[in-house]
Amino acid sequence: MARFEHVRSFAVHIFTACGAALALLALIFATGGHWTAMFFCLGMALVVDGVDGPLAREFKVAEVLPRWSGETLDLIVDFTTYVFVPAYAIAASGMLPQVLAIPSGVVVVITGALYFADRQMKTPDNYFRGFPALWNLGAFYLYLLVPPPWLAAAMIAALAALSFTPIKFLHPLRVRHWRVLNIALLAAWAALAFLAVINDLAPGPYVTWPLVAIAIYFFGAGLLRRPA
Q: What would the mean pLDDT of 50-72 be, rounded to a whole number?
């Protein structure tokens, strides 16, 4: 029985580490300019990130295999999928002013690394403190909306600055306030984002504007709470 628990727990770690493999595939697609395939891989990494935590808690992986730190593994994988690959996509998008493209990517990786090192990145009520380095989503909306270059650069700068503010950002799965609504909107967002990806990031207004509306809700839900 104990051996089975060890194998099962290590399988959860392998599942988490598959997020790093998806990050590699995403980067390979990105370097070839296959942005839709890149976002598909990043989307699959989001699924892995959403599932591995509950599995680890259900199977008590930290207790069964204390040698391997699931928290460290998760941070490593998340940095590659949430920050590093999206930083390349932002820098290579061609949507920012040429003089700001590479500096913007550099800003993304630096602020993202600092955010992931912050031991106070979450508040006691499970909100994120500051913009939670969700650059995969930032890059997704950049490619979806294709804003003017100056606006795209301003958006990147604003999100980077928000990483260090005491403003709360909603964690849709862990925040208890309006959790049912948050999870329902998250599911709707996932379905709409999938439609956007399979339509080569040009899905039309009936998909694009609901995606924008849901993003505004998740952004605003934390702002309406007391600062962290």
A: 88
